[in-house]
Amino acid sequence: VKLVIWDSVHPCYTVFHEQTETFSSLWSEYHDDFRQFLHIYSQDVACYGENLAYFPKGFIENMFFVSANPWVSFTSFDLNVANMDNFFAPVFTMGKYYTQGDKVLMPLAIQVHHAVCDGFHVGRMLNELQQYCDEWQ
């Protein structure tokens, strides 16, 4: 197995198909500017969102996975990826948000492969995410 450091990685997110109760995995090119990224994302969903293929836009190697489970609020979530012996991409799974007092909370499960990421890196990412959320208000 040869590990690679990518110059950029792109989010691959799930698109739920209510009619068939299935989902697709769709990726969008990352952009530093959130408005530009939102535009790219919106175009991709408009173009590929109704396509029932698992990877309607195709598969790229330099992506990470983002999934939402808005029906359930959880305290733990474990994902097993079958037939992918060399699966090193991180997976972020968000659950149903809820209010607690004056705060809005949302569960977030992070699954990483220890060969490419340590708890230090997860902690740094969580601290940066919290800072971003605090500034966003």
TrEMBL record:
The lineage of its organism: Bacteria, Pseudomonadati, Pseudomonadota, Gammaproteobacteria, Enterobacterales. It catalyses: chloramphenicol + acetyl-CoA = chloramphenicol 3-acetate + CoA. This is Chloramphenicol acetyltransferase. InterPro entries: CAT-like_dom_sf, Chloramphenicol_AcTrfase_AS, Cmp_AcTrfase. Keywords: Acyltransferase, Antibiotic resistance, Plasmid, Transferase. GO terms for molecular function: chloramphenicol O-acetyltransferase activity. Its EC number is 2.3.1.28. This enzyme is an effector of chloramphenicol resistance in bacteria. PROSITE patterns: CAT (PS00100). One of its GO terms (biological process) is response to antibiotic. Belongs to the chloramphenicol acetyltransferase family. It comes from the Bacteria.
